[in-house]
From TrEMBL:
Keywords from the named record: Membrane, Oxidoreductase, Transmembrane, Transmembrane helix
Stated name of the protein: Fatty acid desaturase
Positions of transmembrane segments: 149-167, 179-199, 294-316, 328-348
Membrane recorded as keyword: yes
Residues in Cytochrome b5 heme-binding domain copies: 32-89
GO molecular function, one term: oxidoreductase activity
Record's signal peptide: none
InterPro entries tied to this protein: Cyt_B5-like_heme/steroid-bd, Cyt_B5-like_heme/steroid_sf, FA_desaturase_dom, Fatty_acid_desaturase
Region of interest (Disordered), residue spans: 1-28
Biased composition (Basic and acidic residues): 1-15
PROSITE patterns, A to Z: CYTOCHROME_B5_2
Entry keyword annotation includes Nucleus: no
Length: 490
């Protein structure tokens, strides 16, 4: 990841999606599918999965998105033909940085060249075999039941979330500090796990509001990470397009002894002002680009804005209420523990701490096989249904990556046997789930907390110079301020 200057990062984010980074003419209304050019402008407001997914993918190659997020991509391909512009795709049809800030990609990244090319028309590949099993009436009915049960559990967790805070505020003897912190960490992770699945559901109706529960663990801003997570990370896992592996290394600029307190202050800044500033930037961007190109209509946009601003107000309001009640340190302790456990959970399900050149080469052209090989299932206590929430939705992570359109973690658990059985027919080794605390957490601590800063590595500095040089202290100050201004890890 390039260490762009903060002002450059801000400028990149505010730039409208159309023009390429170096200026020049406005990019045409083109979406690329299987090497062909399409104009889906009139489909934005008609898309059954919500306006967001079409509006945000203008000037991108959407082949892997369509292939992975639709139960019948062949039917979608036939439907798209009415929007064909009658020619092959050209490099100038693709935004060089996928309409995302430059700082999220490695230097030299170009979306036309670096977006992986997969085909999804082989009826004998792993994805087709798994999807065929999903059509079995008994399994299809069970998946619907699992989705319903999952939603009921989420409703109970939401009630518990407000009840725990209410008890702490009004009768502390019933909610002592250690119990309060543990429960808030568990509930925030669980509700963020629901938000994780809400991001993958159709962005329609109330789900545009529910999606923002992804923010409850203080790590992300669902309004902008829905794109990076659902549309860049999932279809292109561990490739140069996968910005998720770059986002969480920004803290590596900070010297290792200062990393925990400085990154905590940085994310505190995000909570207090930074993410609201980022949302206002999105509002300005939407107005500048035009609501038609982003959402189709204002009716499609407003629930997303209302939900996102509402959750930010809720998170900030909790801080204010606990401070006024004289219980700021209870809020602060649950904030710190939630933030760091959730941050490590997010990166625990892939080998993001391993450099790309050290990863084993994947020689498969089968997209689903690649997804199984690149993702980990996680366990916290060993029960998949409980771990589905404790691990923020990642207990059956491999199923989630092969079938990202499934609506709940419980449905993924119910599908795991199918994916394991079909994967075995393709010679794919099915590894046991990895323990978050005993396997992944120690490795992540070594990478994200104990390794030298980027500057110290590049300049071969020793421990003292890494922490005492004027440049290191300036980096800490700048990174802290960036959190309050909405620049940083999301």
């Amino acid at each position: 990841m390039t260490n762009s200057r903060p002002e450059a990062e801000e400028r990149d984010f505010r730039r409208p999606p159309g023009p390429p980074p170096g200026g020049g003419p406005q990019l045409s209304n083109v979406w690329v599918y299987n090497g062909k050019a399409y104009d889906l402008s009139d489909w934005i407001s008609k898309h059954p999965g919500g306006e967001f997914f079409i509006g945000r993918t203008k000037n991108r190659d959407i082949t892997s998105i369509i292939g992975s997020y639709h139960r019948d991509p062949e039917r979608i391909g036939r439907m798209l033909e009415r929007y064909a512009v009658g020619r092959n795709a050209l490099p100038e049809d693709i935004h060089p940085k996928a309409n995302a800030p430059d700082f999220l990609f490695k230097e030299g990244f170009d979306s036309w060249q670096d977006t992986p090319k997969y085909r999804f028309d082989n009826k004998d590949d792993l994805l087709h075999k798994v999807k065929a099993r999903l059509k079995e009436p008994e399994l299809a009915a069970r998946l619907r039941r699992m989705d319903t049960i999952f939603n009921i559990v989420v409703a109970v967790l939401a009630v518990a979330y407000f009840a725990v805070q209410g008890l702490r505020l009004f009768e502390r003897s019933w909610m002592p500090l250690p119990v309060f912190v543990i429960l808030m960490v568990l509930l925030r992770s669980s509700l963020a796990g629901f938000g994780h699945y809400a991001i993958h559901r159709a962005q329609k109706g109330l789900n545009k509001i529910y999606t923002n529960t992804f923010d409850f663990n203080y790590v992300a801003l669902a309004f902008v990470t829905a794109d990076g997570h659902a549309l860049l990370h999932h279809p292109h896992t561990q490739s140069e397009v996968d910005i998720k592996k770059n986002v969480f290394t920004m803290m590596m600029r900070v010297p290792r002894l200062y990393r925990v307190p400085i990154h905590t202050l940085h994310k505190f800044g995000h909570t207090v002002t930074g993410m609201t500033i980022r949302l206002l930037d999105v509002c300005r961007l939407t107005r500048k680009v035009g609501i038609k190109d982003m959402y189709g209509t204002w009716g499609g946009a407003l629930p997303h804005f209302i939900g996102s601003f509402g959750v930010r107000a809720l998170l900030l309001g909790e801080l204010v209420v606990f401070t006024l009640a004289g219980d700021f340190w209870a809020w602060a302790l649950q904030f710190v523990v939630t933030l760091w456990i959730s941050t490590f959970l997010v990166v625990a399900s892939h080998d993001f701490e391993v450099e790309a050149e050290e990863l084993p080469d994947s020689d498969t052209e089968d997209w689903a096989v690649n997804q199984v090989e690149q993702a980990y299932d996680l366990k916290v206590i060993g029960n998949r249904y409980i771990d589905c929430f404790l691990a923020a939705g990642l207990s059956s992570h491999r199923v989630h990556h092969v079938l990202p359109f499934q609506r709940s973690g419980f449905a993924n658990i119910a599908t795991e046997d199918v994916l394991r059985e079909e994967s075995a027919k393709f010679g794919v080794e099915w590894l046991p789930a990895k323990s978050f605390f005993t396997d992944r957490f120690p490795k992540l601590c070594r990478t994200y907390l104990l390794s030298p800063s980027r500057e110290a590595e590049e300049r071969n500095w020793g421990f003292i110079r890494e922490h005492c040089s004027p440049g290191a202290l300036k980096t800490c100050a700048v990174y802290t301020v960036q959190g309050f201004t909405g620049i940083g890890t999301v």
